[in-house]
Design brief:
Helix content is 80%, strand content 0%. The protein has 249 residues and is mostly helical.
């Protein structure tokens, strides 16, 4: 006897959900799809921007601080939209245009600090742009999926009422619609929440690097020398040791 190869229609599949769903169900699926695509677009583009900034930071110690002067150092910071090059250029411009204007009343170091702070904050604003979308998708997608779930259960109850009995063939379609909507909502929300936390953690590291660079640049523009943190720590430790020795005497 030949085996039965007749295909059975799956009432819980996406194709069946789209075919049997009404305008509300289809609209809910489209909204979830757009939310997923937009969140993945933000995740991928922000990850690419962060990668470029990390690569740019590697040029700072290798090329910028090893240059003979600031002009040569700035010219060595290459790459499209190099944030460190922009900060360096803004700092140099602020130092060069301090004299001969109303800014004479402001000390040079304060004038340079303001300029560098504005540059760093502009990069920070660019990095965080679009992050609110991920937060919104991560917090609302489960509820959008839950709305589709409630709508599917509502259709199942209507089918039971019209049939007068809870037969499986009457409610399998609406129940499948409800279960799929729940899964889709979670599928959209989880990557958005994960991407938001991952990108924000990487943003903090990049912003810290930008602020370290601006602080070193500020010291160089004002005093003509870069702050050596290791030397400063050693000097501080020696001073504390000398203080303790004097106290014992």
């Amino acid at each position: 006897m030949a085996p039965n190869t007749e295909s059975v229609e799956n009432p819980f599949g996406l194709a069946q959900l789209w075919a049997q769903g009404d305008t509300v169900a289809k609209s809910t699926m489209i909204i979830l799809l757009l939310m997923s695509l937009s969140s993945w677009y933000v995740i991928l583009t922000k990850a690419w921007d962060q990668r470029r900034l990390r690569n740019s930071y590697k040029q700072v110690d290798k090329l910028f601080w090893s240059a003979g002067n600031l002009r040569d150092g700035v010219s060595k910071l290459t790459g499209k939209d190099n944030a460190f090059r922009m900060i360096a250029e803004d700092g140099v411009k602020a130092a060069q245009h301090h004299e001969g204007r109303l800014t004479d009343q402001i000390p040079l170091h304060e004038w340079v600090i303001v300029s560098l702070h504005r540059s760093v904050e502009s990069v920070n604003s660019r990095l965080t742009k679009g992050m609110s979308l991920l937060a919104t998708v991560g917090s609302t997608a489960p509820f959008v999926g839950l709305f589709g779930t409630v709508w599917g259960i509502y259709h199942a109850l209507i089918a039971i009422a019209l049939a007068g009995q809870a037969s499986l063939d009457k409610i399998s379609g609406p129940i499948g619609e409800a279960l799929i909507m729940t899964a889709i909502g979670l599928f959209v929300a989880v990557p958005a929440v994960w991407g938001y936390n991952w990108l924000m953690d990487r943003n903090k590291d990049i912003i810290a690097k930008l602020r370290y660079f601006s602080a070193d640049l500020h010291s160089f523009l004002v005093s003509g020398a870069r702050v050596d943190q290791s030397a400063g720590a050693a000097t501080g430790a020696a001073a504390r040791s000398a203080t303790a020795t004097a106290a014992r005497k």
